[in-house]
Write a structure and sequence with these properties.
The complex is a heterotetramer, with two copies of chain A and two copies of chain B. Chain A is α+β, with helices and mostly antiparallel strands. In chain A, 35% of the residues lie in helices and 17% in strands. In chain A, β4 and β5 form a beta hairpin. The longest helix of chain A is centred in the C-terminal third of the chain and has 21 residues. The model of chain A has no long low-confidence stretch (mean pLDDT 97). By secondary structure, chain B is α+β, with helices and mostly antiparallel strands. Chain B has three domains: 94 residues, Alpha-Beta Plaits (2-Layer Sandwich), CATH 3.30.70; 147 residues, Sulfite Reductase Hemoprotein, domain 1 (2-Layer Sandwich), CATH 3.30.413; 57 residues, Alpha-Beta Plaits, CATH 3.30.70. In chain B, α4 packs parallel to α7. The chains are: A alpha+beta, B alpha+beta. Chains in contact: A-B, A-C, A-D, B-C, B-D, C-D. β7 of chain C pairs antiparallel with β5 of chain D, so a sheet runs across the interface. The complex binds siroheme (SRM) (4 copies) and iron/sulfur cluster (8 copies).
């Protein structure tokens, strides 16, 4: 039996309504947890005053320089915490299995562990993908981590460091998946753990992995290096499923929802007799007379038609990934998205994964050496120009990197002939 | 102190031990999916194996009771495995279609709404707020709870033109990300500086460097090194506050809430887009933020009625145009909507294209 | 009989080929015109050396501060011009009738006048729209101008001044025309001649007038203030011409060339029985069964469908103009286009034209007071922000001014409630 | 000196006295047009009045013989009136259809090609170059003449997908404007400063202010006030040259010619666009610039073959994508195509949209 509950008239109002209530959860915890009692007290004060009452500090585990988010209360009276049992309320960021898969046992084990060492409050998951074990005293941080670590789990990222990564469910349950997202994630992250656990980068660096351009982990906008599945050859078709789609949806829907929404007009419906068999064309009969036709050279791999006709259309067989660099949130220059720097690389063989790993390392190294303090990769590229970044990490230019060529003459082009030479050589080779 | 334990630097664990066996078996070999009903996904593998996924909402910030309840349901109805989505929804996978309905019932009965798939409004991207962050202007869990109560029906049904992804962020830093509708703290007054503390707590050059408009300069105040803000220049972004807590940006009255729409992360049809400002000046009205809910519902209702199937928020607005968006939602258009940040020229209408 | 011709081996190569040759023209002039002989000499030298040989200076006419482009040769030997008869080769910029209409008599009179006072070489027209009387000695500038002026012609603009304007052929011969371009041009220019003839603006200022959004005088990109015809109500239709179009082009062409290219999908083909009669819909039968339908609220007045089906579709009846501010070429910040600042204003009555005139004056005044030296209007707006410009000239904000609202939170919004108030009042009023 | 004559500040003259009477009569009352054949327009007024316009190319820079010839043709075949287009084409208006063919013949016979209407390649926007400008890197009249000789067939026929508008500009200032294909001088070396002259001729602060990258600073050279260029920063734009002729930017070898495509001024379909760099480094090869003609024709041929009806150059490229443009034209893609000027971020591909 824990200490007496504080009055929480404002929080109480969050117990009504159909959505699961975190307040109800906290109150359940508070029944035998003093930290939860006082957390509710402080939170109610924040609601009342419209003011956060936490401040940071320095707390960590032996051997690592990051991964714990320290929180000390600022709500004091006569220099003493008003809610002493929640005066320390640190979070451990722990990396989950890629794809966030759990057995019921693992969930229970984690919960038990955290009720022992911490408040019992766990977030599945933080926006970067960490399991956030929230509410721990300074003293308990180390034993809690030790136990998690023994279970096979490791600390995530915080501060100017490599951050915890995310990949979509992908290959585990999605027919759009174009590579093994979990393997790519583990390859890249686990080879660079030093940068995660001993923060020494100019600022944070995030990797994210999406199996296809639907980008279910928001990698373009929310990671410094996004690895997104794609393909080079023709979209695969399945006539049976295409006919099923047509049977239930009809021509109007096919025209409006599929053909009409292709961003590059790469789709058309043709009479089967007139369907083209040319290279680069995918064709699939939707009934006895008509076929849906895809001009693959003009398809930008946006996923829309595959989404609307699942299974009937599938990514090509020659699969791999695109790499985009520089996504981040709003600080300093406004939000930036990742920029396409590698339109396509295979990601199948061991060597392919090793290449991805090397590229990731190159990018981190270039960032580490060239970014200013507290400058994200996207800001750095904005400052130095994409070409200097490409030069630095050894990537050749490609028209897929741009929406359009420059429209101003403000460039010094004395190396034109050399650059043309390079391009011609690459085209020949 | 005893000798400290060296960490085992094991990194990201392998997912295999925690993955539903049918997913593991058919890893990379899926060929089809469909949406049998709201909250339920059906996937089929090349091998013919089938899996039904039942998806339910959670509060993300989970107490032990909740976690064990979810685990129990997994054991009882769903073969002992779950996964979480990036939006803190939980997914139960079953290989036997007959288990789907009982599972749904168990979830609803335990207070976990089944939904969030396909063209529903999914769970809101959740951040930390008053519960844990050191710089929040508002809460996160509470805002999310209040809004999801409001949007409950849209979560458990699939009646939107396409998926709807919301985010809330408790400060302008926006950990919640770009979304179809984003609800974000917006400060409207320059930071109030507690000069007594600056010298002790803040590395002044770092703070100066953080300001996007170079409005901060070092100054001596009462003989002590402090900082000074050019209030004419200051855009109240709050970027100086994390490195220098004495630059108090949060204000119970003047920290307002702004609503942004049309962010999109997927590449489907249109390229990814950032969300754009549509409303601001909403009060930080804990514990249920009714004014925010009003505006969000207004926008969602118009979108629901007016957009065509598969149009995300941004696709719809792109088609009808911003003048019509403001007309249909009845939201006022002000000078603040007109960008004046670096590169703003590209947001101006440099054409004779107009709509009446 | 003029002096002996110089050798011009390079220029001679420009006499072959089917396009009218300016070299042949110059040579014809040179038969009895020493200035032309020496001009050819200097031009050949430029071709040989790939170097221009003119420099500027100060030459003008009494009473005016601009309009003459002085040119003195730089090609000298022992300080003496190598081609003395073309040592001075000034240009008079003269404003043509709007729409560039000429009688044969006027052409002949101008030619005769210029053979008397100048080289005889006239450009119809300069890119800003001037008649350029090219090749005049300093001594002859005044008499040449006097004579032109007596004919009813006036000097155009040069330097930091209001510049000569242009309007499209418009109302004189074009069914797309939505206002009297010539009247608007003359109203605005002739009321501001002081700023043209006595250059005292921060930099040049150009007006251009296009009768419709086809913008045949490139006003958006090439003028500081563009006035472009448009309409507010529904597109007008003519069934007879629509049926004629369909009869010759067929359904495929109608779908691909018309419906398929509308930028906002405002067009559709409907069965006549199903055609909507709602407000805001224009409908026109193309044959006995089908009608072309326009959702006018979603039409952005791009002109495309009117262009493809001339006469069958015509601008609405409620006509007026849009105003865009800030177009210019590449200097300093890269090329800028005009920005929409007035989506619609009527331009029919005398008062309407007077309002346009006042607006023009306001814009020039704001420019004169706020632009830095050698800063164009577009640059100024880029520097101060559109809203400050609107405030300065007294224009209310409108969502048609932007492609999208801001995507960054970098603005100080303490006046939100007031601004909302303003908007609501205007919506009510 | 005698007393000077005061100018009559009459401004823009009224066009009425110079306007074809049928145009005047039906001013603002036209209802229909068509394109009977290349070089010929047909317009009909509400009143039923009809007018045929025959359009012909000129060299713009006209001698007296040419002007009189054009006037004679007007009197003989075309009711005594003409107008010029913004591209220095001349238009003859006739109200009697029977006069059209004789007029066409007279024009061709006199060396004025009839064409330039509808989906032809019209006359090139003409600038001044060596003939009159004080800062040109190349000629204008000669470049135009050489190119129009090359494109003659495309002027007198209407075989392009849509109108094609070209421009040439004899320096980077680009008086020729944005065009489907623009041919523009591109300097590649910083200005060579003639220090002896700077002090006498140039107002130094003005020059310093003109540089878009702040590469110029005042300096003392040999004890005299002059200017200095930071050659690492300099982007060779030539903006310093007009206010300071001793900053010689033109160079017979290093001033090259660049080709830009996809500029569009009309609002038809897409909004107006700027032209974009596609080729550079072409030699300034007077008197006929064959290398430039080659590239222009290559681009036009691919456009002609590949674009759909009514697609302007930019519409076509927008549809097929830039990767395909470079592939189809065979033009090399280099680092110079990637923008690095202010606001360049918006030109980068921030999406997974790619083409193979
Ligand atoms: C489970 C999850 C991946 C994961 O690893 O956790 C997931 C799973 C699927 N996504 Fe997703 N997406 C998931 C987050 C996302 C996100 C990121 C986010 O939510 O912040 C996006 C980008 C959102 C954006 O653009 O801002 C996303 C954009 C899509 C799209 C593109 C939608 C569009 O038209 O723009 C599709 C395609 C579709 O709808 O058919 C898609 C399709 C799918 C499919 C149908 C893929 C498949 O074949 O299985 C899955 C169905 C899930 C469902 O519930 O309907 N998924 N999906 C994520 C569920 C989050 C949630 O609980 O709501
Ligand atoms: C916990 C979390 C929100 C949540 O409740 O889920 C979070 C919380 C904080 N974020 Fe975040 N961010 C979290 C995901 C994100 C994301 C989303 C993502 O990773 O996909 C973003 C946007 C993507 C990006 O990286 O830009 C994000 C962009 C930021 C930024 C802005 C960075 C920028 O360059 O614009 C900051 C400020 C900074 O780093 O200085 C920041 C800073 C913070 C700090 C450390 C506030 C501070 O500076 O003191 C917050 C600590 C809160 C706490 O007490 O735990 N957080 N933050 C997320 C991390 C949990 C996890 O590890 O899983
Ligand atoms: C005569 C002229 C106006 C003038 O006052 O002098 C003119 C006259 C016409 N224009 Fe134009 N345009 C004229 C310059 C322009 C320009 C400016 C330019 O050439 O630099 C443009 C903008 C070009 C651009 O976008 O860069 C222009 C864009 C159009 C368009 C839009 C084309 C498009 O699809 O983008 C149309 C509509 C059409 O093609 O039906 C048009 C249509 C027309 C029509 C059909 C209008 C009409 O109903 O009479 C006229 C037919 C002329 C013809 O020769 O086919 N006119 N037109 C100009 C002839 C210039 C020339 O000799 O080539
Ligand atoms: C003559 C003409 C080209 C032609 O052969 O047709 C021309 C020629 C010159 N232009 Fe131009 N511009 C001419 C139309 C244009 C246009 C087109 C237009 O007006 O529609 C533009 C683009 C639109 C604009 O205004 O930006 C144009 C943009 C410039 C600029 C760049 C301005 C900018 O802000 O980027 C300059 C440089 C300057 O003003 O400092 C310039 C400067 C010049 C100067 C004065 C060069 C100089 O700075 O010494 C040239 C004098 C040449 C001469 O000897 O006659 N000229 N200039 C055109 C004027 C003739 C006339 O009066 O009809
Ligand atoms: S990103 Fe693509 S592969 Fe991954 S879960 Fe989403 S739809 Fe499937
Ligand atoms: S995936 Fe390709 S074909 Fe399908 S809609 Fe997208 S761009 Fe069009
Ligand atoms: S959005 Fe701001 S307040 Fe909220 S968790 Fe992120 S950093 Fe903290
Ligand atoms: S709130 Fe933002 S703009 Fe204002 S001083 Fe702080 S960092 Fe600068
Ligand atoms: S701008 Fe419009 S009104 Fe003027 S000539 Fe061109 S098409 Fe006709
Ligand atoms: S004028 Fe209007 S309806 Fe016609 S194509 Fe343009 S936008 Fe569409
Ligand atoms: S483009 Fe340059 S060189 Fe040519 S006329 Fe204009 S200013 Fe002179
Ligand atoms: S050429 Fe351009 S960039 Fe170089 S110094 Fe002159 S103005 Fe500056």
């Amino acid at each position: 039996m824990a200490k007496k509950m504080h009055d929480t008239p404002m929080l109480d109002q969050l117990e009504s309504g159909p959505w699961p209530s975190f307040v109800t959860g906290l109150k359940r915890m508070a029944k035998n947890n003093d930290m939860a009692v006082d957390l509710l007290g402080q939170l109610e004060a924040s609601y009342r005053d419209l003011k956060g009452y936490w401040k940071g500090g320095t707390v960590g585990v032996f051997g690592y320089g990051g991964g714990v988010i320290p929180r000390f209360t600022e709500l004091k009276k006569d220099d003493k915490p008003v809610f002493p049992d929640a005066a320390e309320f640190h979070t451990l960021r722990i990396q989950p299995p890629p794809g966030m898969h759990y057995s019921s046992k693992l969930l229970r084990d984690m919960s038990t562990l955290w009720e022992k060492h911490g408040s019992g409050l766990i977030a599945f998951h933080g926006q970067s993908g960490d399991i956030m074990f929230q509410g721990c005293t300074t003293a308990n941080v180390q034993p809690a981590f030790d136990e998690l670590n023994e279970m096979g789990f490791d600390m995530g990222g915080a501060g100017p460091a490599l951050r915890t990564s995310m990949s979509c469910v992908g290959a585990a349950r999605c027919e759009m998946s174009c590579f093994d997202e979990a393997r790519a994630l583990r390859t890249v992250i686990n080879n660079n753990l030093d940068d995660m656990h001993r923060p020494a980068l100019p600022y944070k660096f995030k990797f994210k992995f999406s199996g296809c351009p639907n980008d279910c982990v928001n990698s373009i906008q929310r990671s410094d290096m996004a690895t997104i599945g794609t393909w080079r050859d023709n979209i695969q078709v399945n006539e049976k499923l295409a006919k099923e789609y047509f049977a239930t949806h009809g021509m109007d829907k096919l025209m409006t929802d599929v053909v009409g929404l292709c961003p590059t007009k790469a789709l058309s419906v043709k009479k089967i007799s007139e369907a083209s068999k040319a290279e680069g064309i995918s064709s699939v009969a939707v009934n006895d007379t008509h076929a849906l036709q895809i001009e693959n050279h003009n398809c930008v791999r946006c996923m829309h038609c595959l989404n609307v006709m699942p299974g009937a259309l599938l990514p090509g067989k020659d699969r791999g990934v695109s790499i985009l660099i520089g996504g981040k949130s709003v600080l300093k220059i406004g939000a930036t998205m990742g920029t396409m720097v590698i339109p396509f690389m295979k990601l199948e063989s061991d060597e392919d994964y090793e290449k991805l790993n090397e590229l990731a390392r190159n990018v981190i190294d270039f960032f580490a050496e060239n970014a200013l303090e507290h400058e994200r990769t996207g800001e750095m590229i904005d400052r130095i120009g994409l070409v200097n970044f490409l030069d630095g990490v050894g990537i050749e230019v490609d028209p897929n990197m741009i929406l359009e060529p420059r429209s101003n003459p403000y460039a010094r082009m004395d190396g034109w002939d050399e650059e043309v030479e390079k391009w011609n050589e690459r085209q020949a080779g | 102190m005893a000798e400290m334990r060296q960490p085992i630097e094991c990194g990201v664990p392998d997912a295999k031990p925690y993955m539903h066996p049918t997913m593991l078996k058919n890893y990379g070999k899926w060929v089809y999916h469909s949406h049998p009903k709201p909250g339920v996904l059906y996937h089929r593998a090349e091998s013919g194996d089938e899996i039904w996924t039942v998806k339910a909402g959670t509060q993300r910030q989970m107490d032990g009771y909740t976690i064990r309840k979810l685990a129990d349901i997994a054991d009882q109805y769903a073969e002992g495995f779950v996964r979480f989505t990036t939006r803190s929804n939980i997914e139960y996978m079953v290989t036997d279609e007959k288990k789907v309905e009982p599972l749904i019932k168990a979830l609803f009965d335990s207070g976990f709404p089944v939904g969030g798939t396909a063209n529903s409004v999914s769970m809101i991207s959740h951040t930390q707020g008053f519960l844990h962050c050191d710089i929040p202007g508002t809460d996160a869990s509470g805002v999310v709870k209040a809004l999801m109560d409001d949007l409950y029906e849209e979560f458990i049904k699939c009646e939107m033109p396409n998926r709807v992804k919301l985010s809330t962020s408790c400060c302008e830093i926006n950990c919640g990300g770009q979304a179809d509708i984003a609800i974000i703290m917006q400060h409207t007054k320059p930071p109030k500086i507690n000069h007594d503390l600056v010298a002790n707590v803040c590395e002044r050059p770092t703070v100066v460097a953080r300001c996007p408009v170079a409005a901060i300069r070092p100054a001596l105040v009462n003989g002590k090194p402090s900082l000074e803000v050019d209030e004419k220049k200051c855009i109240c972004c709050g970027a100086c506050y994390p490195p220098c807590p004495p630059m108090q940006i949060n204000d119970p009255e003047h920290s307002k809430i702004a609503i942004w729409v049309g962010g999109k992360n997927s590449n489907a049809r249109s390229r990814p887009t950032f969300h754009k400002l549509v409303a601001s000046g909403l009060p930080n009205n804990a514990p249920r933020w009714p004014e925010v809910g009003e505006v969000v519902k207004k926008i969602l209702n118009v979108y629901k009625a007016d957009a065509r199937p598969w149009e995300r928020m941004t696709d719809w607005i792109e088609r009808i145009g911003w003048p019509r968006f403001f007309e249909k939602t009845g939201l006022p258009f002000t000078k603040y909507h007109i960008d004046d940040w670096k590169g703003h020229r590209r947001t101006l209408n440099a054409s004779a294209h107009i709509r009446f």
